[in-house]
Amino acid sequence: MTDLFEAEATTTTSLDLRRLQRQSRRAARRKWALVFVAVGLVLVAIGGSIAMSFLKGISSSDTDVAADYTDAGQGTVQVIIAPGDTGSTIATTLYEAGVVASREAYITVSNADPDSGGIQPGYYLLQREMKAVYALEALLDPNNRELRSITIPEGLTLDYYFQKIAEATGVTVDEVTATAEDTDALGLPAEAGGNLEGWLFPSTYQFDPGVTPVKALQAMITETITQLDAQGVAAADRERILTVASLVEMEAKLTEDRPMIAGVIYNRLALDMKLEFDSTVKYVAPGEGAFTSDDDRATDSPYNTYLYKGLPPGPIAGPGASSIAAAVTPSQHSFLFFVTVNLATGETAYAETFPEHQVNVQTLQQWVRDNQSTDG
């Protein structure tokens, strides 16, 4: 009996042990299943994140476009392009001024256009909120560059220059005149003797906004020196050439007469004759009409070539390039006299002797009588 009870006890205990082992194994399997599920979820999340990043990378490279406006813009804004500015620098300038929506948009169109390298430094008037390609086109259009323009015709004196410079710079004529007195600061060559007359080259000049009278005058002097250098004029001869050229400028009506009149000047100087030019009298005794009176010609001034031999002390106006060329390379002839016989066409007659000249003068007088109402 004892054995029987012992066997039954043993059997019951074994069954319980096996049951506990099975439960333990099931619990372990459930635990690892949960672990595997958790790990799987983590892997799925990581994989999803990588996939999203990959897809975003594709989207960014293939579909994203730099911010850009869609039209030509509105309003007006001043943009300054400095010398040496690169495309990237210009992009920053435009973006900060509100012209383009992003630097990248401008850089993209700039890199695609080989002409973008030709943008000139200066002040430009653009619109706000412009499509980048329109902003680039605007910078390449010289009409959008904001400039202060000064145009000086040939044959005018300092008063005219000073008036035009005052208008362009926004100062008074008196201020320009005061500035012109410091010729050393302007870079006027020593051979000019401190006199600007004739040393301001007649031309059209364009300056950035804010230009000062000093800068304008310096540019005109520099251009005169450039013109003289182009003609091979030595520094020691500059004042004389400009003086002769100014006489030619004031006396000649037609281009072909400039070297001819220069030849007359040199011929008379070689013979120690007075030049007797009305233009020199007009310089010191301005008046209406083409002619001078006896009183005008009696004006006591070293510029009056009716009273004094040789060239006047300096130029009497701003000569242009063709007059400077004529003074450098005059026509070779024997004429000592000339007179414009038709004030409308500028036709000029030349003579070697005074009697011949008087005949030409009579031709002029007849023209004046015939056209007195228009001549004034």
Description:
The structure is a single chain. The protein is mainly alpha-helical and 376 residues long. It folds into 3 domains: 74-146, 2-Layer Sandwich (Dna Ligase, domain 1); 148-230, no CATH class; 240-375, no CATH class. Helix content is 53%, strand content 9%. The strands form 3 sheets. It has a 3-stranded antiparallel sheet, with helices on one face. A two-stranded antiparallel sheet has the order 4-5. The chain has a two-stranded antiparallel sheet with strand order 6-7. Helix 9 crosses helix 13 (321-328). The relative contact order is 0.07. Residues 1-15 and 50-63 have low confidence and may be disordered.
Largest sheet, spatial ordering of strands: 1-2-3
Mean pLDDT: 87
Shape type:
elongated
Distance between the termini: 166 Å
Number of helices: 15
Radius of gyration: 45 Å
Q: What oligomerization state is this entry in?
A: single chain
Count of DSSP E strands? 7
Question: How can the largest sheet be summarized?
Answer: 3 strands, antiparallel
Low-confidence stretches: 1-15, 50-63
- In the residues, how many domains can be counted? 3
> What is the ordering of alpha helices and beta strands?
HEHHEHEEHHHEHHHHHHEEHH
Computed structural class: mainly alpha
Measured as a percent range, the helix fraction is 40-55%
**Percentage of residues in DSSP E strands:** 5-15%
